[in-house]
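S1.2 Input.
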Amino acid sequence: MTVEPLPAFRDNYIWLLHDGCDAWVVDPGDDGPVRQALQRRGLRLQGIMLTHHHADHVGGVAALRTAFGCRVVGPAGEALPEPVESVGDGDVITALGRRWRVLGVPGHTAGHIAYVDETPNGDPRRLFCGDTLFSGGCGRLFEGTPAQMLASLDRLAALPADTLVHSAHEYTLSNLRFARVVEPDNPDLLAYHSGCEARRAAGDPTLPSTIATERRVNPFLRCREPGVRRAVQRQDPSASTDVEVFAALRRWKDGFR
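S1.3 Output.
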């Protein structure tokens, strides 16, 4: 299976999965890049996976479904361009001959889900996590609570270390600039930031990342680390529990420029 990012809008990635003949896409906010990629590669679109309802993730669904008659799978309980096969936590779908486990990861939206490959067949395990986990960061809390988002990130952080993290936005450099303010002496973070800057300078994506990398550099997965807690508590001395520290960290990032 080949996986490619299709740039859309200013910083979105629509993920294209294919075997040389058949294809699926994840979160097609725009049908144009998908049509162009399918035509260039001679692929048949078989299905669409959706992680949540935001327009920059679902805006191209209706046009693609009309043009290709493909399946559309998405989170139950969210308003999506119907008809959609509704799935929730623990469900399994089959795409490109592989089993994809659905993980409920609320926080960014109330019904946000992710998909993880359960049958990598010798390839790296892949996670498509929408706007829940970014490289070096996480999604804003538009509908969920800090407790929900922290639990969702803990769940993703517990996946195998070599799992490839396919986020839906190229936010990595801005996230890492914030991360370096939180943990300025983290050597893994400094090295990763330098590598990501080189990739972007060459015009390449920073994604996918890995769960192992995110455990080492992402402050939102590291909010229980003593150094991160101390940095957050300098901003908000009232933050003491894990959830309070996470919430204060997210507020700090929301105002970071």
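S1.4 Remarks. The first strand starts at residue 2 and ends at 8.
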